[in-house]
């Protein structure tokens, strides 16, 4: 297409470019998206007829546009629009939820409910790992390698999409139901570098999940809280406040009895309950307000 930048057509790999709105050089008129053309092109402006999924928000300002050429040679356009939103605070939160990150369940809440990561997704992830192993055995650059690389990249996109979709739905359901959600301030990157944890693909998912929760709650005038790093959500007894340091660094202890008050605890649920308590104290201003920006 005239004026469009040249897309390198490497089979299977996506070609895309992003262009930013400068002084209104990106605009929509009569359902046609006008974009500045690529440099050196004789054409000044490119017009793309739009087939939109949903109406663009009124009074929105186009920030940037990403054009991707799909495998059929069509252009997919992603328009990033900023628009003002009035957010009204809900006032003091009534319904507070604590969420503890869990390696095997994704998260456990203060009632002991688990995220229920769909079994089907795990199967897909296992299939992806298998195809990746096949790829690693093939000679790099060979025809068979190239063929397998395509299989892996398609599957990767599918797995990533369905996981993102699930994270959004989960975050949406929680943000609708609760007024405040408290999570721990885990350094997910540090976990990712840990040999044992790195195998689990969900770990970066929890980072995204926190982000989605944050904006979905804040959009509704609700609260997203990250307990500070020095808050020992795992070690504290949620009944009496005793700090059980034996739990530190020992992920194998799944259940424990408090040496001080004798109450029996499920490790994850107790941690989530402590996070909920943190949120309650936060709202009563018993502790310094300390939200950490994601
Ligand atoms: Zn206790």
Question: Nutshell version of this structure?
Answer:
By secondary structure, this protein is α+β, with helices and mostly antiparallel strands.
Please characterize this protein's 3D structure.
Helices cover 32% and strands 21% of the residues. By secondary structure, the protein is of the alpha+beta class. It folds into 2 domains: 68 residues; 140 residues, Nucleotidyltransferase, domain 5 (2-Layer Sandwich), CATH 3.30.420. Strands 8-7-9-10 form a 4-stranded mixed β-sheet. The longest helix has 35 residues. The radius of gyration is 24 Å and the shape is flat. The two termini are 41 Å apart. The structure holds zinc ion.
CATH class of the largest domain: Alpha Beta
How would a crystallographer describe the biggest sheet? 4 strands, mixed
The stretches of 5 or more residues where confidence is low (pLDDT under 50) are 194-199, 289-294
- Figure out the total of helices: 5
Strand order, main sheet: write it out: 8-7-9-10
**Structural class by SSE content:** alpha+beta
Helix content, binned percent: 25-40%
Beta percentage is: 15-25%
Rg from Cα? 24 Å
The termini sit apart by 41 Å
CATH fold field value of the largest domain:
Nucleotidyltransferase, domain 5
Arithmetic mean pLDDT: 84
Instruction: Report the CATH architecture of the largest domain.
Output: 2-Layer Sandwich
């Amino acid at each position: 297409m005239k004026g469009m930048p040249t897309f390198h057509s490497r089979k299977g790999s996506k070609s895309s470019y992003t262009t930013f709105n400068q002084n209104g050089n990106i605009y929509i008129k009569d359902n046609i998206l006008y974009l500045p053309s690529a440099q050196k092109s004789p054409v000044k402006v490119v017009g793309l007829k739009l087939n939109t999924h949903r109406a663009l928000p009124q009074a929105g300002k186009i920030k940037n546009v990403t054009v991707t050429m799909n495998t059929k040679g069509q252009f997919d356009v992603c328009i990033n629009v900023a628009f003002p939103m009035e957010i009204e605070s809900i006032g003091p939160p009534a319904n507070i939820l604590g969420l503890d990150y869990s390696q095997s369940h994704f998260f456990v809440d203060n009632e002991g409910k688990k995220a229920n990561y769909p079994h089907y997704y795990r199967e897909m992830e296992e299939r992806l790992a298998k195809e990746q192993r096949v790829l690693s055995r093939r000679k790099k650059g060979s025809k068979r390698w190239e063929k397998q690389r395509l299989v892996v990249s398609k599957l990767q996109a599918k797995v990533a999409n369905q996981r993102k979709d699930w994270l959004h739905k989960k975050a949406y359901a929680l943000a609708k139901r609760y007024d405040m959600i408290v999570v721990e301030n885990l350094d997910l990157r540090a976990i990712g570098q840990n040999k044992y944890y790195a195998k689990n693909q969900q770990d970066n998912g929890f980072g995204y999940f926190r982000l989605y929760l944050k904006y979905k709650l804040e959009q509704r005038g609700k609260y997203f809280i990250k307990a500070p790093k020095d808050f020992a959500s795992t070690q504290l007894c949620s009944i009496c406040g005793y700090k059980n340091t034996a739990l530190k660094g020992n992920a194998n202890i799944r259940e424990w009895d408090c040496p001080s008050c004798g109450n029996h605890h499920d490790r994850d649920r107790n941690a989530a309950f402590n996070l909920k308590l943190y949120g309650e104290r936060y709202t009563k201003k018993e502790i310094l307000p300390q939200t950490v920006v994601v």
